[in-house]
Design brief:
The mean pLDDT is 91. This protein has helices spanning 12-22, 26-34, 40-47, 63-76. It is mainly α. It has four helices and no strands. It has one domain.
């Protein structure tokens, strides 16, 4: 089955503006804009996040289920591979 890539357009002037104002390379500015981050302060906060700013791991998708599987295997003494 062939894969179909979706290529998003980009606004070179917005990329250049964020690149200058946030002091980031053009590709980083483009990625930030794709995430909806267009303010230099918000860009810095995103790129320089502190651990206290990150959400708790148990709120990440799939983590609670993964923890259950790991705990179950540890309790039963079976071998597991985590990657």
């Amino acid at each position: 089955m062939a894969k179909h890539w979706r290529i998003f357009g980009h606004d070179l002037s917005r990329i250049a503006q964020l690149e200058r104002s946030a002091g980031v390379p053009p590709i980083v500015a483009q990625l930030l804009l794709r995430r909806g981050i267009d303010d230099p302060d918000a860009a810095r906060m995103f790129l320089e996040a502190r651990l206290t700013q990150l959400r708790p791991p148990e709120q990440l998708p799939g983590v609670p289920a993964a923890v259950e599987v790991i705990v179950r295997h540890l309790r039963s003494g079976s071998a597991i591979v985590v990657h």
